[in-house]
Amino acid sequence: MKQVRIVYLLHLDRPVGDASNPRGQARHYMGCTCDLARRMRQHLGAYGSVITAAANAQGIRWRLARTWLGGFDRERALKARHRHRDFCPLCWADKEGVCEKH
Q1: Of 39, 53, 61, 94, which is the most buried if we count CB atoms within 10 A?
Q2: What per-residue confidence (pLDDT) applies to 99?
Q3: What does the alpha-carbon distance between residue 32 and residue 9 come to, in Å, rounded to a whole number?
Q4: What pLDDT is recorded for position 101?
Q5: Is 0.85 surpassed by the pTM of this model?
Q6: How far apart are CA 54 and CA 35, in angstroms?
Q7: Contact 27, 15 (CB under 8 A)
Q8: 100 exposed, middle or buried (CB, 10 Å; 0-12, 13-18, 19+)?
Q9: C-alpha closest to that of 28 among 59, 45, 49
Q10: How far apart, in whole angstroms, are the C-alpha atoms of residue 101 and residue 93?
Q11: Three-class secondary structure of residue 94 per DSSP
């Protein structure tokens, strides 16, 4: 049986990274998995990504913003566009434009 892979986008409530360098900050994280629930638990614990580990350590809340069907090829294609906020419905709905500043 072939596993279905899912590409997912996490939205951080505020940027994480080097505050003195806007290009050194992240507001989104994109990943790929075949078990989304397990991967979200990993991000909450010690087996997530560097970005979510830093967000967790700083008390920055993050949440699942969007998913796509597809594997690593789809993830790479989306990441290559370098504008994760364009894919984020939480940024689209942000009436104050906070996400536009990162």
Answers
A1: 39
A2: 52
A3: 9
A4: 44
A5: no
A6: 23
A7: yes
A8: exposed
A9: 49
A10: 14
A11: coil
Strands 6-17 and 25-33: antiparallel
CA 63 – CA 45 distance, rounded (Å): 14
Residues 6+ apart with CB under 8 A from 19: 25
- Amino acid letter at 4? V
User: CB count, 10 Å around CB of 65?
Assistant: 21
Lookup result for tokens 């050194």:
24
pLDDT attached to residue 96: 52
Token reading at 27: 């507001």
CB atoms within 10 A of CB 26: 19
**How confident is the model over 13-64, as pLDDT tens digits?**
999 877 777 677 889 999 999 999 999 999 999 788 889 999 999 999 999 9
Domain locations along the chain: 6-101
